[in-house]
Each structure stands twice: as structure tokens, then as C-alpha cells.
Amino acid sequence: MDDEAASPGGAIARAFKSAPRDALRMGLPSKGRMAEDTMDLLKDCALSVYKPNPRQYVAKIPQIPGLEVWFQRASDVVRKLRYGDIDLGIVGADMFEELADGDPDLVVCHEALGFGQCHLALGVPMTGKFASVDSLDKLRSMPDWTAETPLRVVTGYHNIARRFFASKGFKHVVLLSADGALEAAPAMGSADIILDLVGRGAECWAVRGPWRASKPAR
Predict the structure, then answer these.
(1) DSSP E strand boundaries for the chain
(2) Do residues 27 and 20 make contact, with C-beta atoms less than 8 angstroms apart?
(3) Is the pTM of this model over 0.70?
(4) Where are the domains of the chain?
(5) 118-212 belongs to which CATH class?
(6) What confidence tens digit (pLDDT) does each residue in 183-204 have?
(7) Fold entry, domain 11-110
């Protein structure tokens, strides 16, 4: 396996060996569409995941002796790869880009597994001062954004958002956090726009765009 720095992707593994143990550990997403698609992928590869107790987080793949499967939240798959608690995993590119933090010890083995297609999109209100905003250039050039009154962006992807706005020349941006229902923040007046994950074919809330942020943010 190469020791080179990784580009964002799907299946990832450490470039060095962690503390010795008897079994190789693989992290898989524990719930959601990503988990379902991952199980379908393994099934298509003639690999069956045997989980003795549905309440437990550990399973085995009988076709691969010595491999432990650990079901984790997608974010924890990346974190535990970095900590050395697991050796390889399947995770979305969004989680990888947000949490890998350029770790050179993480290597992308396969970046296009054929499922989980989505992108990050900016959601901008279609009314008020944003009524005529239909491009990033117009959003950036609005005179409203100053050091005292920065563009307020609510998102769950702060690292990706920080890189994206810096690469696009935004000088005055503050990133805010919220757990779910991000679109409520602009409606309440606590944020100006949102940056969120959007599935293929879906629309962000009342947007002009949406503008894809996933590739420019890399």
C-alpha cells in the first residue's frame, strides 16, 4: 500500500500499522442510507456480514477470517481510523474531508464505490436582500458583509466551509453550528445562509442555485 497523502474518497485505510492485535478491524457506517448501501455492496461482492446480536456493534465476515467489523457512526469511522482503533473503513467523502484534516496516514483505497452520491450546496433565501443573488460573485460582493456584520453561515461542515469560502475570496464570514433543520436558522434570523449536504436530484431549501461546494472546497 502506498504511503502517500490521501485524496477524499470512499474506502480508506491507515498507511501504517497500529498497536498489534489479533484481528484486522474494519469500520462500517451503523445507520442510514450509507449503511444500507454498504451492506448491499458487500452482498454484491459475495461477502456476508454475520452479527450474532443485533444490539451489538461487532460482527464478522465469514469469508474473511481474522477480520472484525465494527459498526460506527460515519464520523467515528474517520476518527477511529486516525486514532488507530480500526484499520480500514467505508465512509462518505463529506466525512473524510471534514474530519481527516489532511492526515497523511490515511490513504484512499477506492474513491468511487458507486453509491451515496450527494454534494454540498449553499442555500440562499429568495427574498429580501438576497432576492437578486443568483451567483457566488453577487453574494460575495454584497456590501452588507463587514468585520462587524459578517456573512453568517450555518453548517455542520466547518472545515470544508472554511476552505471553500477562503478559496472563493470571502473576507468576512462566521460559521455557526446547528443540529438538524439548518434551514430554520435563516428563518429565525440567526443566520444568513446555509451550507448543507444534498442528495442527488434534491434541492436545498428555497435556493437560487444550488451552488456545488464539494469540489471547489477540496
Answers:
(1) 11-14, 24-29, 58-60, 67-72, 88-90, 106-110, 118-123, 151-155, 173-176, 193-199, 211-212
(2) no
(3) yes
(4) 11-110, 118-212
(5) alpha beta
(6) 888 888 999 999 988 765 444 4
(7) D-Maltodextrin-Binding Protein; domain 2 (3.40.190)
